[in-house]
Amino acid sequence: MDAFYASVEQRDNQQYRGKPLVVGGSPNQRGVVAAASYEARKFGIHSAMPSVVAIARCPELIFVRPRFDVYREVSAQIHSIFRRYTDVVEGVALDEAYLDVTENKQNITYASTIARLIKAAILQETNLTATAGISINKFLAKMASGQNKPNGLTVILPQSAEAFVEGLAIEKFHGIGEVTAGKMHSLGIHTGADLKQRSLFELTRHFGKVGHHYYKIARAEDDRAVEPNRVRKSIGAETSFAMDLRSRAQMLHELEQIAQIVEQRLEQHSTRGRTLTLKIKFSDYQQITRSKTIAQYTREFDVIFTTATELFELIELENRSIRLLGISLSNLENAKQTQVIQLPLFAYSNSGNY
Asked: Which residues are the active-site ones (predicted)?
């Protein structure tokens, strides 16, 4: 879906149409942007950005509190459209899904035909636009879906797959964030073609287990199936910093921002958790996790932030700097009814320049 939460708000409120709008907490509440309209994105505003930074970039910005019950209702309506064509639907979030239409209920030959029919039905029945990416595997379909937004449709044919990947800037790869892209640049990897030249041994030496994934996607390969019944084990968020955090005040400030995002995601998916895990990666790439199980299920910001802070205070920093912080909640209340989603990374510098 195109700027889903913001588009729903503009659809339902005529006074918001054509104006820069974000869904999320207001600046005086130290809130975080959950979604930004395309008008707001022109100012460099994006999801997970602190609201105070967003309002500085666009003083006339409109802030709207999220209505997750409405977004869930619209998402269910869209998924019902998907299931007219296939039951092999893997929800990634309320606004995104993978569909396997190799065999489909209407025996339509071309995936592009199905995509056009689905897009038309979504527009007619919800008055919202969607963008479709079509290809031979998940990675390529995801990359295609980002090529022509909003209201676009892009097909990457099998015979074009490798050339497409080879010509892609490394920072455009799904799953490669700003920090990883920077490390790849330092190794002389700037495009998919550069990545393809590196051996599996070299990639795993520099990037660990994920190096196997980089090796495959450089060759346009991805053997992950569309899995409609996967169960979510946790919900969380993490921030990878372009510049390492060095002061305790900075670290606690970032933990607070991450806790707000986790609260939003738990609310979005109508669930609560009992086991909180704090994740820290130091500047030397050593990674540690600390967990605590609380007495009751929660999705309250105060509980999430307080528990994360308690775990943080138990860690001996010894003047070490931090390159990544993350918070997740597992042992979810309604895990059997929920699906796995991919939780995005976002990266920025200590100076606040996004």
From this structure: 96
Distance of alpha carbon 291 from alpha carbon 313, whole angstroms? 13
Q: Which ranges of 168-282 does DSSP label H, i.e. alpha helix?
A: 178-186, 192-196, 200-207, 210-217, 248-268
pLDDT in tens, the chain (354 residues): 999 999 999 999 999 999 999 998 877 766 889 899 999 999 999 988 888 899 999 999 999 998 999 999 999 999 999 999 999 999 988 899 999 999 999 999 999 999 999 999 999 999 999 999 999 999 999 999 999 999 999 999 999 999 999 999 999 999 888 888 999 999 999 999 999 999 999 999 998 888 999 999 999 999 999 999 777 788 999 888 878 899 988 999 999 989 989 998 898 888 999 999 999 999 887 889 999 999 999 999 999 999 999 999 999 888 899 989 999 999 998 744 444 333 433 333 333 332
CA distance 265 to 176: 22
pTM: 0.76
Residue type, 235: I
Measured CA to CA, the distance from residue 146 to residue 93 in angstroms comes to 16
Name the binding residues for Mg(2+). 95
Distance between CA atoms of residues 316 and 37, nearest Å: 42
Rounded CA separation 338/233 (Å): 9
Closest CA to 262 of 298, 315, 293: 298
Contact 85, 108 (CB under 8 A): yes
Q: Which of 193, 206, 270 is nearest to 235 (CA)?
A: 270
Q: At which of 80, 108, 130 does a domain end?
A: 130
342 and 238 in a single domain? The answer is: yes
Residue numbers of the domain that contains 247? 234-346
Q: Give the catalytic positions in this structure.
A: 96
Last residue of a domain, one of 19, 42, 64: 64
Distance CA 9, CA 64 (A): 8
Tokens of 47: 């999801």
For position 44, which CATH number holds? 3.40.1170.60
- Listed in sequence order, the residues at least 6 apart from 303 whose beta carbon sits closer than 8 Å to its beta carbon are 294
